[in-house]
Write a structure and sequence with these properties.
Strand order of the largest sheet: 3-1-2-4
Protein name: Transcriptional regulator, AraC family
Helix content: 40-55%
InterPro entries: Ada-like_dom_sf (IPR035451), Ada_DNA_repair_Zn-bd (IPR004026), Homeodomain-like_sf (IPR009057), HTH_AraC (IPR018060), HTH_AraC-typ_CS (IPR018062), Me-P-triester_DNA_alkyl-Trfase (IPR016220), Tscrpt_reg_AraC-type_HTH (IPR020449)
Shape: elongated
Keywords: Activator, DNA damage, DNA repair, DNA-binding, Metal-binding, Methyltransferase, Transcription, Transcription regulation, Transferase, Zinc
GO molecular function, one term: zinc ion binding
Largest sheet: 4 strands, mixed
Order of helices and strands: HEEEHEHHHHHHHHH
Strand content: 5-15%
Radius of gyration: 23 Å
Cofactor: Zn(2+)
CATH topology of the largest domain: Arc Repressor Mutant, subunit A
Length: 204
């Protein structure tokens, strides 16, 4: 006779979808690895028959399960704003690199869908748009303070294609990099395109 798995359908769906909203409400352990995780853990989805549900982390520990090193269920969950601030600091520190949504999701132990949705809800723009604005701000500095070519500046801010760099720059500022350089941040461009204005209009 086949044994019925007692895991509630909603809990299993939360695990499969890496649903961050269930974090703190329950934890799940994997019998074959003796590891327990948060529902939002981006690790490979285990087989249903190998899963055990715990409503307190200590229950899992008492049963001999060890905390996952990716989602760290043994640590207190960060408030959403602190979590968002960590992502912003990561982007601001690594702006010259190519940072994909999947990479961010892996670093911060969330599903790409939930990370993007929550970040945009809190910040007003997607992580990619936020990173683009940082790159443009840095490019504005290079354009004003150096004699580097457009290709060199594009590469310096982590954009390999100079034409794409020009497209992004104009989308964010309303002028091409060459036009901005000629103005050297003068009254026409400086007054119309301050950094705060650009951040306010990043999603337009």
């Amino acid at each position: 006779m086949q044994t019925h798995n007692p895991i509630h359908k909603k809990l299993w769906e939360a695990i499969v979808s890496n649903n961050h909203s269930y974090d703190g409400k329950f934890f799940y352990g994997v019998q074959t690895t003796k590891v327990f995780c948060r529902p939002s853990c981006p690790s490979r989805i285990p087989k249903l028959e190998n899963v055990r549900i715990f409503y307190h982390r200590q229950e899992a520990i008492n049963e001999g399960f060890r905390p996952c090193k990716r989602c760290r269920p043994d640590q207190l969950q960060l408030p959403i704003q602190e979590w968002i601030d960590q992502i912003k600091r990561f982007l601001e520190k690594n702006w010259s690199n190519t940072i994909s949504l999947d990479l961010l999701a892996n670093v911060f132990h969330l599903s790409p869908y939930h990370l993007q949705r929550t970040f945009k809800k809190c910040v007003g723009v997607t992580p990619a748009q936020y990173l683009e604005q940082i790159k443009v701000d840095q490019a504005m500095h290079y354009l004003q303070e150096t004699d580097q070519t457009m290709k060199e500046i594009a590469q310096a801010v982590g954009i390999s294609n100079a034409q794409y760099f020009t497209t992004i720059f104009k989308k964010k500022t309303g002028v091409t990099p060459s036009m901005y350089r000629k103005s050297k941040g003068g009254n026409r461009v400086g007054s119309a395109y301050t950094t705060n204005d650009l951040l306010d209009n990043i999603s337009q």
